[in-house]
Amino acid sequence: MLPNYPIITLLTDFGSKDIYVGVMKGVISQINPQINIIDLTHEIPPQNIAMSRFCLMNAYSYFPEGTVHIAVVDPGVGTQRRAIAIKFKNSYLVGPDNGLLTGLLEPFLTSKIDINSNHLESPEIIAVELNNPKYWRTSQPSTTFHGRDIFAAVGAHLASGIPLEQLGTFIDLKTLVRLSLPSCRLTDDGIEGCIQYIDGFGNLVTNIPGEAVADKNWYIAISEGKKKPKNKKHKPKKNKLKNKKNSKKILQTEQHKLAGLSCLIPKGQTYGDLPSGQLVALVGSHQWLEIAMNGGNAQQQLKLDLGAKVQVIISHQ
């Protein structure tokens, strides 16, 4: 069911310096000037599919049914990668088939829906390849700007009530591209995960869900100085995390700068639970565990990037 005033969201890596976002909005308005266009973000790092995937996953649930989400972070624009649209829980996802859109679908593609069934048996997720030029801006789209010529136009038609099946041919859900990102896993001491997103404040968002540590006493550990020793016979120092005496000891901010030490970050409820300049681990508004610094930038302090491993240590004392 379409909302009274159709909504389209836009998520891109285009930034605000150039006209690309404005042009996409113009194409949408030419097709239907009544559509409400909401910018999720246009500041995704260039070509960073993983971060755009995270943003779309965490924004989706805040919009009404019938919303069309257009996401364009598209390093493969103009190549053989498919342009697709997906119906998911009575809303729509439009963009390139490069893993950006399928973050939302992972639980359904892996367990809740039989991906061998066809679209009639599994109406919760329907995907089509956008190969019907009738609903493009032009039948000869630019090889470098599908956001304008295909995705914006298709999204506007969807928001205006054109059925998904008219936009192209159905896709076997098994063939949708999915990013092979590390998953969190249980360990003897707790949970191992990785950094999946870094926000504008430098907060490091992990892929460990907050519910995994609900009602538990926990903290986050990060091993710094991961370079391999030059002498193969030299044995690296054992990780002090296995020493129970160290499980309660939180290294001071000055120590975080010393390579080769394990950085232990205490749990908090708010950013201000520790003094200014101190690191804190908490469950963010997105319901993932994150590492932050009160009044500072955790990413700059810890020099961690996407995919860096983190360890949640659960204390049973």
Automatic annotation (TrEMBL):
Residues 227-248 have a biased composition (Basic residues). Residues 225-248 are annotated as: Disordered. This is Adenosyl-chloride synthase. Keywords: S-adenosyl-L-methionine, Transferase. It comes from Planktothrix pseudagardhii. Gene3D superfamilies: Bacterial fluorinating enzyme like (2.40.30.90), S-adenosyl-l-methionine hydroxide adenosyltransferase, N-terminal (3.40.50.10790). The gene is salL. InterPro entries: SAM_HAT_C, SAM_HAT_N, SAM_OH_AdoTrfase, SAM_OH_AdoTrfase_C_sf, SAM_OH_AdoTrfase_N_sf. Its EC number is 2.5.1.94. Residues 8-168 form the S-adenosyl-l-methionine hydroxide adenosyltransferase N-terminal domain.
